[in-house]
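ugh ok so i messed up the first submission bc i forgot one of the chains. this is the corrected input, ALL of the components this time, i swear. 452 residues overall. if the numbers dont match what u have on ur side tell me asap before i send this to the collaborators (the ones from the other lab, u know who)
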Amino acid sequence: MNRDEKMIEIKDLFYKYPDGTNALEDVNLDVCKGDSVAILGPNGAGKTTLLLHMNGILSGRSGLVNICGLAVNKENLPKVREKVGLVFQDPDDQLFMPTVFDDVAFGLINMGLEPDEIRRRVSDALKLVDMADYPERTSHHLSYGEKKRISLATVLCMDPEILVMDEPTGNLDPRHRKEFICFLKDTDITKVIASHDIDMVLSICNKAAVFDKGRIVAFDTMDKIFGDKELLKNYGLD
Amino acid sequence: MNHSYIDKYADLDSPIHRIHPRIKIILFFGLVLCVTLTGRTAYLSFVIYGTVLFIIAVFSKIPLLAIFKKILAVIPFVVLIAVFIPFFNKENGWIVFSSIVIKACLSIFSMTLLTSVTKFTSLLKGIEGLKVPKIFIMIMSFMYRYLFLLIGELQRMQRAKESRTLLKTNNLNVIKTLSNIIGVLFVRSYERAERVYLAMCSRGFDGEIRTLDE
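and heres the new structure output, hopefully the right one now
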């Protein structure tokens, strides 16, 4: 694996919300192959907004976002969305089909795969998140943790090169949180994780970007960020 | 964990539940068609339809009281529309009125039975097999998926409101908070719709609805 290959390249990104507030200001971020980058920062710092730029759902006022060397624009959008698996914070947004099977298959059908391949991938993905017995269940009958795991399956089945997650462990009970962390630790997909769960981030990620008011105030290896007591104190991460 | 509202009894097991959904859809809709096309004064036919539905209900082990309640919930709307007929049609207005109410009851009975003996998801698969446009099926499936969420959200807001209502409130206040709740619920649903759409786009949705061909 070439560790220097840039999977995500973000340069001078600015983004303004329709109501005029600056959400992202001059964001620069490079994520290399195999990296696990934590995005830290208080509520409303712009973490989710940044994640939505990574598969072209939002596009900045100015600046550049490259995914695996592809510029994120209208033309490349289908390819980019195949490479980037985005898991939303609220599983009720992520799971919109009547059954679990339909939900996991949704992305695969859009990729234009063969029905047999789709069935195989759905059952593999559900096995991976320990939900193999659930394909015919309806999402609203599941617990929050189950929905959260199926959300991950809906993206994993598409075999993405980059996994982008918004608060993956939020609201999970301790046992499922632990399983989730173990699972993420074992997969060597490039990951970007926005979270407040510092323990989780410490055990999974090798790099961290600290966000505040739409700016990246620090981006370095885990050891350096968490060795800088003053930085942690200033941004309330201690 | 939420409870079912629409297809509450669809998880029961009976010979009726086991029939292929497509056949059930055709049969029950066919029955509704028959009911609507029957003459106004063919009371004997109405009795026969009712008996058939009643027998199906008994066989499918669905509590009759639950079906009765559902019919009762829809009847006011029918009566509200039909009640004006006797004023315009002086000759046989009451006959038209009663036949409309009877037909409505039988149709609702039939549809309630259909949704009670078939899981909503198989119902969707069934009408998909009958070549109903995909967009229609998609809308129905969203309705099914998010109706529960909406009800849950409403319940949580209601509880939050009640737990902070300490004084005795007058009716005006109740209406005021209720309209606020409805407003907030609308905004929340609107925003959720936006997020769901983004989630769909993230997984390659480009405006065309594709389904897995069986």
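quick check: Chain B has two domains: 15-126, 133-202. that seems consistent at least. Residues 133-202 of chain B form one domain.
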